[in-house]
Amino acid sequence: MHSLDDFSGLWISLVTPFADGAVDHPALARLVQRLRGTGIAGFVACGSTGEAASLDEAEQQAVLDTVLVAAQGLPVVMGLSGYHLPKMLAAVKATSAQPVAGLLVTAPCYIRPSQSGLLRWFTDLADASQVPLIIYDIPYRTGATLDLATLLQLARHPRIRAIKDCGGDAAKTAALVASGALQVLTGEDAQFFSTLAQGGAGAISASAHGHTQRFVKVMQAIAEGDLPQARTLWQPLLPWIAGQFAEPNPGPIKGWLAHYGLMQAELRAPMTVASQALVDRLVTLDQNLPPV
């Protein structure tokens, strides 16, 4: 396994299972093994869905180790975030020396730097990395908005290859896709179809823990230019995706996975488990989805 030049396809933004307060590594390994053969491009460990902010550095490394072994050669991207630049540079150097395909990195939260500050932040991180970076543009978590011009300038860096787009700006998304400067991977599952139909490269998805092959088939149908078939596959997924984000992520997907005996529903405070009513709703939606 080594760094990638192509991040296209469907990536699963993995949950981190817990049991009695500790990371449940056997459940994590089983989850990765279960998803490995579904046609996905790879896995993202320690993203926001993975509750990385609640894991200490040793736990994050242990999660990565488990995912790398269980993935059996399928690419793994590691999420890194923070706001202390020297610590982030050290983390980038250490993590990029491991057999990861790339790093998913955010703007520094809370600080809200200028565009020139964001340019410097991502450039410094890319300079320190041995593997490509995927910029995670998620202003509602970081408080920092990356302008289109800043992203296009960052795209000139040889190790900045892709963006996980949660920016909430449809015009910026369309312009990024049209530019061809970065591979655009949607991080908003409800935008999966529209981003791909415009020519986006793929998705980093939380809700695709479930009905994974349907997501893959939507992507394949769009790539083949069969939009009617893609819509037929996609539209039944919309209530499922809405349900996954009806309460804070990753509570719903963990509750759904727990219903099927794949892990405990446990989250770390201040996150809370999904309501039983929502989990029941998700299970009912499973039963109503037509087969692929």
Automatic annotation (TrEMBL):
Binding site for pyruvate: 49, 204
Localization of this protein: Cytoplasm
Pfam families: DHDPS
Active site: 136, 164
Pathway the protein takes part in: Amino-acid biosynthesis; L-lysine biosynthesis via DAP pathway; (S)-tetrahydrodipicolinate from L-aspartate: step 3/4
Domain of life: Bacteria
HAMAP family, A to Z: DapA (MF_00418)
Family according to the record: Belongs to the DapA family.
Protein known as: 4-hydroxy-tetrahydrodipicolinate synthase
Species whose genome carries this gene: Rhodoferax ferrireducens
Organism placement in taxonomy: Bacteria, Pseudomonadati, Pseudomonadota, Betaproteobacteria, Burkholderiales
Gene: dapA
